[in-house]
Specification:
The chain has 144 residues and is mainly alpha-helical. 69% of the residues lie in helices and 0% in strands. About 14% of the residues have low confidence.
Length: 144
């Protein structure tokens, strides 16, 4: 059985566990690779675009999103690094917001209909998840 034949709820569960595993790895990597960030990777794989072109605007927008997302994930909005649940939620909010902002850039500059639909889906789904995590964080304030 391939993932294409799995029912959507099963796919969502697999995606969740994949993200959870990735988040755990990211926290471990952050601990072991202090000082490195997404921001340091901007422009690495993209050749310089003609200034003023849509490609240059897209690249600049993506670089900006990565800087804001990376800073938000590092700040964790006051969550204690010792509180795994709060750390997860606090880091995922800016991570999801970054995905929403990237999806908006796709809608602004991208042309492919399938990717535009995916971007719309990302915006809708991740905004709901951001609200859920923010509500959880409000219900579980950081302990002094």
């Amino acid at each position: 059985m391939t993932t294409q034949t799995l029912p959507t709820p099963v796919k969502n569960i697999l995606l969740f566990f994949g993200l959870l595993l990735g988040a755990t790895s990211a926290v471990q990597a952050q601990h072991h690779m202090a000082g490195m960030s997404h921001a340091g990777m901007t422009g690495m794989a993209m050749p310089a675009a003609k200034p003023g072109s849509p490609v240059a605007a897209f690249q600049h927008g993506m670089d900006s999103v990565m800087v804001v997302m990376d800073e938000g994930m590092r700040r964790m909005d006051g969550a204690s690094p010792a509180d795994i649940d709060a750390s997860f939620a606090a880091m995922m909010v800016p991570h999801h917001q970054g995905a929403v902002d990237m999806a908006r850039l796709q809608l602004l500059y991208g042309k492919d209909p399938a990717l535009r639909r995916l971007a719309q889906s990302i915006i809708a789904e991740q905004q709901v998840e951001i609200q859920q995590m923010q509500a959880w964080l409000k219900q579980h304030p950081a302990k002094p």
